[in-house]
Amino acid sequence: MSKSVFRVGVTRDFLGPDGTCDLDDIAGPLFDKAGLHWEYIAENTPALRAEQVQDYDALLVLGAGITAETFTDADKLAVIARFGVGYDKVDVGACTENGVLLTIAPDGVRRPVATSIMTLVLSLSHQLLIKDRLIRAGGWRNTQNYRGMGLVGRTLGLVGMGNIGKEAFKLAKPFGMRHITYDPYITSADAAEVDVEPVDLDTLMQTADFVCVCCPLNEETRGLINARRIGLMKPTAYLINTARGPIVDQKALTEALQNRRIQGAGLDVFEQEPIDDDDPLLSLDNVIVTPHSICWTDECFEGNAKSACGSIINVASGKMPLYIVNREVTDNPKLQQKLAR
Predict the structure, then answer these.
(1) What is the value of pTM for the model shown?
(2) The domain 7-104+297-339 is classified under which CATH number: 3.40.640.10, 1.20.272.10, 3.30.420.10, 3.40.50.720?
(3) Which of 39, 43, 51, 273 is catalytic?
(4) Which of 28, 165, 220, 271 could form a disulfide with 250 if both were Cys (CB 3.0 to 4.6 A apart)?
């Protein structure tokens, strides 16, 4: 593929309101050094249309969706590099059918998201926001009525124990908690690596003081944390979701929070994003909400950029990238033909 100019389209949602982006300082030098031509796609759209991508060999994608229609006449397109690990907005089957590699950047988000989970654990257990609001309202003398929860001996339960989950358990180790997880795909070696006890999902919901959702969104996990399972939680327990909103039944969670059937929640993701301004979740004092960006740090941005750009550069030089979602596509003659150009 190095015989002709390799063109990279970058989705326009990377750009801030002023039209600038830190990506220029990271991706620019990497692509320039590799001899690739890159540019921002002209229009910011919820899903990429065929005419937007047909001239590119690669796409660097932040939040835009990828549908089957995206690939119409996209004969050059060989790789789509997601700036992160979620790909629920990407039609993976269409990628494979059209001979396009889909890559993600787990090495970019592993530590930042794990840190975000622990940020919410600590903020909720110490009732940080409640105490902040209290002092701002002149309630200094009432702080004894807002006693937090110590972590020693408590149970941290992660729904999903991939790279982020393992990292979260490692970060939590000094706090002296019991660690449990529900993940039907982990091995005993995976569990032993971070000294965690595998349990079934109902046991986790009943046992954990902190239920943390860390799994990807797919047909198996959509609605996984439903009303029945939320009902299993202890009244003193917290639910934390930094994965994807539709994994949790948001209506059932809201009702549980409103009725104080659980202690609280920390939510970075929601069923609908952006969340409506009048959503009842936003009026509750026992939930911390952030706009799907709690892990959005300089560390996360740089790590994602280097990983995603690295995947594109590998493909441009005829190499297979590390983090391929649809590995079956490597046998597709369409992809092989593109790589041979």
Answers:
(1) 0.92
(2) 3.40.50.720
(3) 273
(4) 271
